[in-house]
Amino acid sequence: MNADTLPDTLLRILADKEAELRERAAATPIGEMERRARDVGRPRDFTGALCDAVAEGRIGLIAEIKKASPSGGLIRDPFDPAGLAQAYEAAGAACLSVLTDAPWFQGSPADLVTARSSCALPVLRKDFMIDPYQVFEARAMGADCILLILAALSDAQARELEEVARGLDMSVLAEVHDQRELDRALGLHTRLIGVNNRNLRTLQTDLATAEALVPQIPADRIPVAESGLRTPEDVRRMAAVGARCILVGEHLLRQPDVTEAARAMVQAG
């Protein structure tokens, strides 16, 4: 990771994350967090759930639960993680993604715990992962998968975090925004490669990003199209280039009937 090339917003988020990490580690040492992570039992099969959905002819929807975002402001109020998890499950979503970052997304670990305990779906901890401590923390709170944002990590960091996750039998979603990041992600073991259509500098979305990158992902990996998907036609555009798994949050969360909106995405393929 070269800090000089990162957008200001991402730099500020990572600085906040480092400060938060120091506080958390001071309160609960990493040895204790690792013990908790190993005591919670086996994770749900996040990658397998996506594969099963696609094998059954559905779109593998990772449905996101978040209260707010830097680009969208407050997204849903009142905010009910349990109700949202149940609505997504009823719609046929394969997995959940839950924001746990507080300063920028108004999330918390409690949101993930509540959502996961309210359904049977595997859950991704959506946060800015920079240290092995957070991987143990994710498993301790019940997460079945972690997100690795290649733009925020060096290759060495990404490999280290993936190794810790694999040691806990967790899945890893490696997120990329451009060709260089995709090349780096393919050096990891994970099958899950997320292509984020959001430009980190402008925060605008363009589905052409996934249309360019997804066809370059090898057949033994699983492409996941992220950001900017709002209609069944958008989903079909992604499926047409090989991304039959998608991660959708803000669009679904702004709909009055979350179940119906998510079902339309699942059945679009």
From TrEMBL:
Keywords, ordered alphabetically = Amino-acid biosynthesis, Aromatic amino acid biosynthesis, Decarboxylase, Lyase, Tryptophan biosynthesis
Task: Please give the catalytic activity noted in the UniProt record.
Answer: 1-(2-carboxyphenylamino)-1-deoxy-D-ribulose 5-phosphate + H(+) = (1S,2R)-1-C-(indol-3-yl)glycerol 3-phosphate + CO2 + H2O
Does the keyword Transmembrane helix belong to this entry? no
Q: What is its EC number?
A: 4.1.1.48
The residue range of the signal peptide is none
Q: What class of enzyme is it?
A: lyase
Q: Which GO terms describe its molecular function?
A: indole-3-glycerol-phosphate synthase activity; phosphoribosylanthranilate isomerase activity
Question: What are the residue boundaries of the Indole-3-glycerol phosphate synthase domain, all occurrences included?
Answer: 12-264
One Gene Ontology term from the biological process aspect of the record: L-tryptophan biosynthetic process
Query: Looking at the keywords, is Amino-acid biosynthesis present?
Result: yes
Q: In which pathway does it act?
A: Amino-acid biosynthesis; L-tryptophan biosynthesis; L-tryptophan from chorismate: step 4/5
Family, according to the entry, reads as follows: Belongs to the TrpC family.
Protein name as catalogued:
Indole-3-glycerol phosphate synthase
Q: Give the organism, scientific name.
A: Teichococcus rhizosphaerae
